[in-house]
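agent> Task received from the user: take the single chain below, predict its 3D structure, and emit structure tokens. No templates, no multimer pairing.
agent> Plan: (1) validate residues, (2) run structure prediction, (3) serialize to tokens, (4) report one or two observations.
agent> Step 1 OK, no nonstandard residues flagged.
tool_call: predict_structure(input=
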Amino acid sequence: MSTPPISPPTISPSTTDATPPTASGPLRRLYNWVLSWADSPHGTTALAAISFAESSFFPIPPDVLQIALSVGQPRRSFRFAAISTVASILGAVVGWAIGWGLWQSVQGFFYGVIPGFTPEKFVYVESLYQQNATFWLVLSAFTPIPFKIFTIAAGVCSVPLPTLIIASAIGRSGRFFLVATIMRVFGRPARDLLDRYLELLTILLGALIVAGFLALRFLGGSH
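)
tool_result: status=success, residues=223
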């Protein structure tokens, strides 16, 4: 049976998934709260907690705090990336568990409270998993596409847990270590660059991943 063609997702990244919210309000205050941990002795713990929570329900991405911490301690940039990666993968497992065992009870909360979490997007993600769950999990973990929708949908769709863990490890480490590399090489001047262009950069690299995957499918089908 032929595999349906793969097209890039039409899910729009939430403004809080890569760039700071510009309007005042709860998200702006939450964004400022996340940044405030950069000046705390518990900043690394906060980074782990935010990375963990963002994979299932928290609206502000951990990149925000990772960048701020790396500005003050650029030599620890890769350590911060490792913390973000491990905590995010563990959070993805929790997201999967929510989808697998609790979704019927909690879906009203996610649709009503979590920014960018809508029934239409969730149904669309479920359809993507019918094509290639691993591919879309890797792409969502790397790009500004809301990762939490994909982790929870993976549980609802009974995507194998090892698949989720491996895909999350690839995508999340790619994203967080990309940020760490830029901060380690360029230091403080890179902060403004990442604040402004992180979303664009990850989208472009994600598009390259899609293009490479489609090229492999084309070459494989030409034999």
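agent> Step 4: summary for the user.
Confidence is low (pLDDT under 50) at residues 1-9, 218-223.
agent> Done.
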